[in-house]
Amino acid sequence: MIRSLRARILVASALWTLGLLGVMHFTMFFLATLYPGLQRVRLHSLLVFALACMLAGFLYLRSGLSRFSDLRARLTAVREGHEHRIEGVYPTEIQPLVNELNALLAHREEAVRRALAKAGDLAHGLKTPLAVIAHESDRLGDSAAVIRQQIERMQRQIDFHLAHARAAGSAATLGARSSISESVDALIRTLQRLHADRGLTIDARVSPSHALRVQREDLDEMLGNLLDNACKWAKSRIAVGSMVNGERIVITVDDDGPGLDPALREAVLQRGVRADEAAPGTGFGLAIVRDLAEVYGGSIALATSPLGGVSARLELPASLWSGGL
Predict the structure, then answer these.
(1) Whether residue 220 sits in one domain with residue 142
(2) Which of 122, 173, 318, 325 lies 20 to 30 Å from 89 when distance is taken between CA atoms?
(3) What's the domain count of the chain?
(4) Strongest mean pLDDT among 15-29, 39-53, 165-179, 255-269
(5) Predicted pLDDT of residue 280
């Protein structure tokens, strides 16, 4: 079995040409039988013409196949870091592949840039809390509460930036797939134990066939923050659902809490902002959800819930392998 595309095309061209020569020879023989005058035609001249056409065809084919060698050389240059893109114009059968490869390269380059930027944010975000801790540690005593507060702030900064940096790399990984129902079920079990004394009811209506093109750790991070936030504000009931929206899946988390002023819905998605300063937390939960969703090409929005509280709408790209999509 011939594996080389070049060899296969050449062999196919040769076979096609031989077939045409055979048809042409049969046609000339048939015409010569009907019209004896054609016997004076010098068949060897016709054969020379046919061979010349074969040679021209092979040369033209070789010129076309040389683009494959050029593509391989440019891919090698990209792999070795000499180039960032595959430059050049290729035949119509190859150009779509080249365009997809360039899009993939651009996506990975952006993922690395995001990861490096977030690593820098992490280092910068830790400077102030660490400086406060270093200063207060000299006095201790009544400063214990301040130290605990700064440690908590530092921990949330670490969680926020590292989660974003991890997702930036995860989003560039091909083949990521996570089941929504598996993530939701595991989180509900954990949250019901944590809030057992409040008697909260968490109703999950998520199709087992719904899956996202997201790493499981990042899906748990996003849903965990949304469900934890709903548990903090809910009076007695929380509802989780999912539905297909084209090539995306929308996950909704509703609670029957006091709700949120529409003017604050966009603000609470920013890092460090809380709807109520008396509530527990540091204001990074929803910001983490927003940033992670954007890394994966998704979005998060807040609205009024049918239950009376807040409805969080998380939209993410569906996995191509999801059943029933």
Answers:
(1) no
(2) 173
(3) 3
(4) 255-269
(5) 41
β partners of residue 297: none
Which residue has tokens 């079920």? 185
Task: Collect all residues with Cβ–Cβ distance below 8 Å to 165 and sequence separation of at least 6.
Answer: 114, 115, 118, 119, 122
Q: What residues make up the domain containing 120?
A: 102-170
Token pair 């061979």 is found at: 51
Euclidean distance between CA atoms 180 and 240, whole angstroms: 11
Whole-structure pTM value: 0.55
- Residue 107's φ and ψ, nearest 5 degrees, are -65, -45
Q: Which three-class secondary structure state does DSSP give residue 155?
A: helix
Asked whether the beta carbons of 206 and 250 are under 8 A apart, the reply is no
Rounded Cα gap, residues 284 and 225, in angstroms: 9
Amino acid 198 reads: R
Please give the angle made by the CA atoms of 224, 226 and 227, to the nearest 5 degrees: 65
Handedness of CA 217, 221, 224, 226 (dihedral sign): negative
Task: Report which secondary-structure segment, H or E, holds 249.
Answer: strand 248-255
In this structure, the answer to whether residues 40 and 64 fall within a common structural domain is yes
163 and 292 assigned to the same domain: no
